[in-house]
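## retry 2 of 3
previous attempt timed out at serialization; input unchanged, resubmitting
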Amino acid sequence: MQWFNRWFSFSWKKLVLVAALIPLMWFVRDIEFGRVEALTRDALQYLNNTSRVEKSIVTININGKANNFERPLKISQLTTLIDHILENNPKHLIIALSNSDLNYSNNDIRKEFMTYLTPHENIYMFATSSMANEDIGDDEILTQFPRQLRITTTYDKTIGPRDAKRRRLMISLDRIGAGGEFKQIENLGFTVKPPEYFKYAWNWWGAKMAYFKAFPEGTFGSYDAGWVLNQKNKDLDFENKTVILGTNDEYSFLYSHSVFDLVGKIGSSDYKAYPISDTVANAMNMYITGDYMKLVTGFNDLLVLFVVISFLIFLNVSIKKKIIIFASLIPSILFLISIVYIFSDFYINISRSVTLLFFLQYFAIPFVVLNIFKEQESKKLQEINDARIDALLTVSEKVAHDIRSPLSAINLVAERATFPDAEYKEIFDGAVKRIDETATKILTRYRTKAGRENEKTEQINLADIINEIVKEKKVLNSKIGFNVIADTGNSNALGLRLDLERIISNILDNSIFALKNVTAPKISIAIVDASNFIRIDIADNGTGIPDQVLKVVGNERITTKADTNQGNGIGLLHAKRVIERLNGKFEISSQENIGTTIRISLPKT
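## retry succeeded, writing output
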């Protein structure tokens, strides 16, 4: 249990802070930070996006914005381009064009194109009008083509169906092969992974969806159609390769193929469409190589984050170390998911955690740093005050040592002297005795460090101490009315007798000084039984303490006495620290020209 107490600390403030995290986590539980997720995912793909690529696939992109290609495409342009490709002896040519590329409102044009393609046994049609449809191929003319390649796909709804710049082609592992793609891709001469490969056994991961790898444009060749037309046959390397011909289409669903493009295009309407030919190449590559991103959906990143932050709050280390650990959470999370992805292809969406951490750090860390600066300033001030106190205690030790010799002479004379009043004799003997005890205890306490640290509290009768000190003060200040009221039969408290005598004596001296010019000076001292404490209230009707001084009195060394020989400003500061060290309370209230009350509360015995 000791190790637990050493490493963790609990308080109601920390519990409130942890409790405040719960509604915050609940608030963001359903929010999708799509752009953060896309940025993280694409960065991971860039780290590991050439691991497995089928090199016999080549893509050609018809860019409608260049090389005089129009949209809808002219049949004459298409046939010229296809003839030029076929002259270079590709193993297969896959036409990946949507009905909008082929003028979906003109059936005759599309039928003419089908008539041209049909005799070529090595030409296939990627039959789709929208990659967003899970049931691919809804064009009544295009779907009549005898050699088709269908791949069941969907888009990433978590990013947003309208955010075309960041959508990614996905596939449900439950629906994989629904379009007959295993057999169709085998017919193209490729060896594909068996369906069992994609039925991932770790269901508890929740890996039910997969992203097709968004390889950078150019991974599969990505020739420009205009450039292909202008090249001689000997300059084109399509021999025995599968060539995919497509366009820049809104429904390609593979935009911003690397993190660098994504960063440059966030918030911009001028985005770069990803060629649909590369989209089909990515889809085929997944079936051939088995290389895809396994999207983990059963991982609650917010729950993990809640546990980590709660652990950090209760961890019993310095604020500085907590800031360092807290600031390292984002890079640590990114590092961990990078390792998981690189070695397993599992992708964990941590966009909520990273976004929440960013805002927490943006607001929390400056606030904590400001508090650290304040604490350091307060600590520095306390060190200065402690140094002053130590210096004074050193002087006190010397004075205590030097005073004992003349004190012995006074004792000798007092024994032989006669006093006109027995009470004076009692006061004199008591004062001499107190001086002697004070000198002895100062020497004992401050001669060694152990003496200062190991001094133990004792049971003290506060009424006896106060009556003794008041009797002494009355002799020297006969014009002041002293009134001691003890409304409890038990005035015993735990404390250090020497310290309490000095504290009460100093407080009375301060009150006496404040009453110098008061017409009817009064000091009242009340001893009150207050639950678990014995309370001492010392009140006077003196000049009071100014507001600006009252704010810092007891926390800084300060005095209102013009003559420094009558006070050095350390009495109340030392008194407050001693009382608090005894688990007591030290409070001051004052009003100018009305008076001051000092309240000391000490634990009962």
